[in-house]
Amino acid sequence: MPNWTKEQSDAINKDGTNIIVSAGAGSGKTAVLSERVLRKLKEGVNVNELLILTFTKAAAKEMKERIRKKIKKEPSLSSQLELIDSAYITTFDSYSLSVLKKYHYLLNLPKNIGITDSTLVQIKKEEILDNIFEELYEEKNEKFEEFISTFCTKDDKEIRNYLLNIYSKLELKTDKKEYLEKYINEYFNEEKIRNDINLFKKNILKKKEKIEEKVKELSFLMDGKNYTKLLDSLSPLLNSENYRDVKINLSVSMPRMQKLSDEEKELKEEINDGIKELKNICIYESTDEIYKSILSTKKYVECIIDILTLLNDRITKYKLENNMYEFNDVAALSIRILKEFPFAREEIKNSLNEIMIDEYQDTNNVQEEFISLISNNNVYMVGDIKQSIYRFRNANPYIFKNKYDNYKNNNGGIKIDLNKNFRSREEVLNNINDVFRIIMDDEIGGANYKLET
């Protein structure tokens, strides 16, 4: 029997609530996860009452084989060998597809859901969008023609690509149709616009404060004469307390200063860049002008929404008629079943003793929504935010970070840290952690990598 550390033992044995395990490379997380499964089986849970999710078929296959080997070494668990092949040790995509196949009839879909190559669907989307544009040109649609004349230079190719790009982002939503229908009312009401303007103004003041910080840094480096020159030139901007004052005082310029060190030159350049950035952003004379400018875009946004709605309706119809679906469709449809049919949701909930998710740092918003619908304070999440590699698949490391922070404060679950690396020398590990702390902090990578001590 392995000599588990206290943290590993906790990760194997803790129960009764949601658990997030922050497990660094070489910390034995895979061994811990499979040991947790074995412990549950010994306590009478069947392997097909566990949902074990990961992100690749290879990882799922490897996990299943690891658990199978453990079961074979335990004569009392021989009955579990008959269940393991039908156990849900699989990917998110495969499991959501199994949900859709089981409850397909609720949405009048065929049981044999056809999964198609995304490239083929993309070609069809382009074809449908081309047809929509042709129809709008033929109709001499006024709103459309004004939109095209305002934003096109040579031809409408860029606009078409822009719309396809927006639609690809829209596909990350499980309620595309509803989202499009509500968009104008939600984003062009007075309260929302005023809130957005306030956020914009706060952002301007934050950028001004960053310039102030750089000026303060120079106070410790510059001689008195140079610093006085700098302060005299920038004081009007630095003393600005609102958007209007910042806008008025952006005419300031940096004074000529002699014999600056490299560090002083660098800070001076950063201040210059900050002022240039503010000049590029502060293009409106007043907040009323900002308000009017936002409202003036409404007709163009309405045109975009109309086109995207047509595209969505037609591609949805095409997929239904040809039984051609992508995995993002499968996820959206399975979530729709769980939301609209409580009995299906409860059946799945009641069938699962625990939901285990490996590589949780690579979860995206759709997968998180799916899990939230079938869980019952019984989700066990293992991951290492430093190893998030699926941003191109819309993985959202903030999901891991926010949950970790909440559980750290005993809000919604408990957190366990597996920080001991059994494969790396300590000095090498410290160097790696230092690098991650520098390049992947809260603002950049969505996580703070400082180890808990």
Jot down its keywords:
6-stranded parallel β-sheet; 453 residues; 63% helix; 21 helices; alpha/beta; Rossmann fold; disordered C terminus; 4 domains
In a few lines, what is going on in this structure?
The chain folds into four domains: 6-106 and 328-422, P-loop containing nucleotide triphosphate hydrolases (Rossmann fold), CATH 3.40.50.300; 118-172 and 300-322, no CATH class; 190-283; 425-452, no CATH class. It has 21 helices and six strands. The chain has helices at residues 6-13, 29-42, 57-72, 78-84, 92-102, 118-139, 142-151, 157-170, 176-187, 190-219, 224-238, 243-248, 262-281, 287-296, 298-322, 327-340, 342-351, 365-374, 397-408, 426-439, 442-445, and strands at residues 19-23, 50-54, 88-91, 354-357, 379-383, 414-418.
Kindly describe this structure.
By secondary structure, the protein is α/β, with parallel strands linked by helices. The protein folds into four domains: 6-106 and 328-422, Rossmann fold, CATH 3.40.50; 118-172 and 300-322, no CATH class; 190-283; 425-452, no CATH class. The protein is built from 21 helices and six strands. The protein has a six-stranded parallel beta sheet, sandwiched between helices. Strand 4, helix 18 and strand 5 form a beta-alpha-beta unit. Helix 2 (29-42) packs across helix 3 and helix 6 crosses helix 15 (298-322). The longest helix has 30 residues, at 190-219. It is flat, with a radius of gyration of 28 Å. Residues 427-453 have low confidence and may be disordered.
